[in-house]
């Protein structure tokens, strides 16, 4: 009789049974698993540097998928990695295979003639042949980490070692499984063995989270094991509460989606799941249908219209929290806002994180005036852009990221905004002539949540009105009678874009373009022109923080 287990969402599955974690890959979903089992950030893959101990993050097999994403102004290595655009022939090997500094690409006529002289039809026993026919000495050039073939084919004896060197060696001995299925091999005296195994008795075991399928010992001779089947490791799901036959049904929690449907997982008799777990990705930039209408010209809105907008409050005079700035939710526990909202001009550093509190789904600005939707979180960490110096440098790099002590539970009124980053050449043009809006609270009456429609202008256009505007800024012109007022600082300027996130068809989602930087004096509003910090200039800072947020919650 089979036990049918239905879990309401992935988060519940993790909460109920932490012991399930070893069933899946040891690396987090935001990480890349090297061939030797170690984990690195996905942002460190195919960047020209061998970050994996075995270099498996910089191979043609890994990086071939990057080819379509590597465009100007970046330089593409022959095996697919994307590196800095000035890499070609700058005297520094930026590519793991050295393909940015090859003689054919960078050499003079003498270098090319020398290269031609190396072209041989037949190679000697102490030489190896490149794909183009070049013969090179094994002792001097094999596995030296450089593209010594220098023929533009991307053949790197180090990068392609699994295909060129290791596979023939494996064929010299008894067959062994690959990847996670490969057992730990020990010989006499518990000595760890590596392939090829040509002769002798071998004991098989598996790393934590895997179970051995087959005999524990076998004898190797003449490329054959003494047992009928080759022992291999399988994911271990043989637990009292998950016996073979158990089925698990996955449903993404609110605010999370997948591109395809989530198939059921079944624990098989051999102690392994019939398929891997499909991850639910964070949904972003979508709004729920408003539960009440909002006026055409007054712009007072329901909090479902800007579910990423949050309020930042500061503990004031040891008595109560006062409103400080707006902000936007990037992940359930990461907020982006303006640096001047959390910066002490006197000490020239950020205020203490424990003086701030963030409220999501806030309809009324005043801290004490609440609705059932209000959700409060304390701040655990403040990260200010490294070049920010406040008024001294006219609010250059006016951007900060706040990590919360506990993530918000996503709902129809609390959802993160989408972010995307353009190429280096497009960082300014992407903010020109964008029809969008920003959210804030009215300075009148009950300080209700509002949004302001606006159109953006690139930095070069803004300079016609603001000659001292910094290079990381663009500006927006509000439309109609609406204005940007004190307290709107830190809020996000967003716009709708068509994208294929979570769908084969294009859908409209809201993306963040900038963060309001200039702050009018009390009870004043910025007439028409508002200065924004362009998030395109902070790609590394934002991506790293979002990656850490995802890793922490995985």
TrEMBL record:
<dbReference type="InterPro" id="IPR036055">
    <property type="entry name" value="LDL_receptor-like_sf"/>
</dbReference>
<dbReference type="InterPro" id="IPR009003">
    <property type="entry name" value="Peptidase_S1_PA"/>
</dbReference>
<dbReference type="Pfam" id="PF00084">
    <property type="entry name" value="Sushi"/>
</dbReference>
<feature type="signal peptide">
    <location>
        <begin position="1"/>
        <end position="25"/>
    </location>
</feature>
<keyword id="KW-0732">Signal</keyword>
<dbReference type="InterPro" id="IPR000436">
    <property type="entry name" value="Sushi_SCR_CCP_dom"/>
</dbReference>
<keyword id="KW-0768">Sushi</keyword>
<feature type="domain" description="Peptidase S1">
    <location>
        <begin position="295"/>
        <end position="547"/>
    </location>
</feature>
<feature type="disulfide bond">
    <location>
        <begin position="77"/>
        <end position="95"/>
    </location>
</feature>
<feature type="disulfide bond">
    <location>
        <begin position="34"/>
        <end position="52"/>
    </location>
</feature>
<dbReference type="InterPro" id="IPR001254">
    <property type="entry name" value="Trypsin_dom"/>
</dbReference>
<feature type="disulfide bond">
    <location>
        <begin position="206"/>
        <end position="233"/>
    </location>
</feature>
<keyword id="KW-1015">Disulfide bond</keyword>
<protein>
    <recommendedName>
        <fullName>Modular serine protease</fullName>
    </recommendedName>
</protein>
<feature type="disulfide bond">
    <location>
        <begin position="123"/>
        <end position="135"/>
    </location>
</feature>
<feature type="disulfide bond">
    <location>
        <begin position="27"/>
        <end position="39"/>
    </location>
</feature>
<dbReference type="Pfam" id="PF00089">
    <property type="entry name" value="Trypsin"/>
</dbReference>
<feature type="disulfide bond">
    <location>
        <begin position="70"/>
        <end position="82"/>
    </location>
</feature>
<dbReference type="InterPro" id="IPR043504">
    <property type="entry name" value="Peptidase_S1_PA_chymotrypsin"/>
</dbReference>
<dbReference type="InterPro" id="IPR035976">
    <property type="entry name" value="Sushi/SCR/CCP_sf"/>
</dbReference>
<dbReference type="InterPro" id="IPR002172">
    <property type="entry name" value="LDrepeatLR_classA_rpt"/>
</dbReference>
<dbReference type="InterPro" id="IPR018114">
    <property type="entry name" value="TRYPSIN_HIS"/>
</dbReference>
<dbReference type="InterPro" id="IPR023415">
    <property type="entry name" value="LDLR_class-A_CS"/>
</dbReference>
<dbReference type="Pfam" id="PF00057">
    <property type="entry name" value="Ldl_recept_a"/>
</dbReference>
<dbReference type="GO" id="GO:0006508">
    <property type="term" value="P:proteolysis"/>
</dbReference>
<dbReference type="GO" id="GO:0004252">
    <property type="term" value="F:serine-type endopeptidase activity"/>
</dbReference>
<feature type="domain" description="Sushi">
    <location>
        <begin position="172"/>
        <end position="235"/>
    </location>
</feature>
């Amino acid at each position: 009789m089979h036990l049918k287990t239905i879990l309401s969402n992935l988060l519940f599955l993790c909460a109920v049974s932490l012991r399930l974690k070893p069933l899946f890959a040891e690396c987090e979903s935001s990480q890349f698993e090297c061939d030797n089992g170690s984990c690195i950030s996905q942002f460190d893959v195919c960047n020209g540097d061998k970050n994996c101990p075995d270099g498996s993050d910089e191979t043609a097999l890994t990086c071939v998928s990057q080819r379509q994403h590597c465009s100007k102004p970046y330089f593409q290595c022959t095996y697919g990695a994307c590196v800095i655009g000035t890499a070609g022939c700058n005297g520094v090997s930026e590519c793991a295979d050295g393909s940015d500094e090859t003689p054919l690409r960078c050499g003079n006529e003498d270098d090319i003639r020398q290269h031609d002289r190396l072209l041989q039809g037949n190679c000697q026993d102490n030489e190896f042949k490149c794909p183009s026919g070049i013969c090179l000495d094994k002792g001097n050039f094999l596995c030296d980490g450089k593209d010594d073939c220098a023929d533009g084919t991307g053949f790197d004896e180090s990068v392609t070692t699994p295909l060129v060197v290791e596979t023939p060696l494996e064929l010299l001995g008894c067959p062994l499984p690959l990847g996670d299925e490969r057992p730990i091999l020990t010989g006499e005296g518990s000595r760890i063995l590596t392939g090829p195994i040509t002769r002798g008795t071998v004991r098989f075991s598996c790393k934590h989270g895997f179970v051995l399928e087959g005999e524990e010992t076998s004898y190797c001779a003449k490329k054959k094991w003494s047992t009928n089947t080759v022992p291999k490791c399988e994911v271990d799901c043989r637990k009292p509460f998950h016996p073979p036959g158990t089925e698990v049904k996955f449903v993404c929690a609110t605010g999370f989606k997948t591109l395809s449907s989530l198939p059921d997982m079944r624990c098989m008799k051999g102690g392994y799941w019939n398929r891997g777990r499909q991850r639910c990705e964070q949904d972003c930039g979508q709004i729920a249908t408003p539960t009440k209408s909002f006026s055409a010209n007054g712009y007072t809105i329901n909090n479902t219209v800007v579910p990423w907008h949050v309020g930042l409050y500061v503990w004031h005079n040891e008595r109560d929290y006062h409103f400080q700035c707006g902000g936007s939710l990037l992940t359930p526990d990461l907020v982006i806002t303006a640096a001047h909202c959390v910066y002490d001009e006197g000490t020239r550093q950020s205020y203490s994180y424990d003086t701030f509190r963030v409220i999501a789904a806030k309809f009324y600005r005043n801290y004490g005036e609440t609705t059932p939707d209000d959700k409060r979180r304390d701040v655990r960490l403040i990260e200010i852009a490294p070049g920010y110096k406040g008024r001294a440098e006219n609010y250059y790099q006016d951007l900060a990221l706040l990590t919360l002590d506990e993530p918000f539970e996503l709902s129809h009124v609390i959802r993160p905004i989408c972010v995307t980053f353009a190429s280096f050449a497009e960082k300014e043009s992407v903010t020109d002539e964008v029809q969008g809006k920003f959210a804030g609270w009215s300075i009148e009456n009950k300080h209700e949540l509002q949004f302001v429609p606006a159109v953006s202008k690139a930095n070069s256009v803004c300079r016609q009105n603001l000659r001292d505007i910094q290079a990381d800024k663009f500006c927006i012109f509000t439309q109609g009678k609406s204005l940007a007022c004190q307290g709107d600082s830190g809020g996000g300027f967003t716009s709708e874009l068509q994208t294929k996130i979570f769908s084969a068809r294009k859908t409209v989602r809201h993306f963040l373009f900038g963060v309001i930087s200039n702050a009018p004096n009390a009870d004043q509003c910025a007439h028409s022109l508002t200065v924004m910090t362009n998030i395109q200039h902070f790609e590394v800072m934002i991506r790293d923080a979002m990656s850490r947020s995802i890793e922490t919650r995985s």
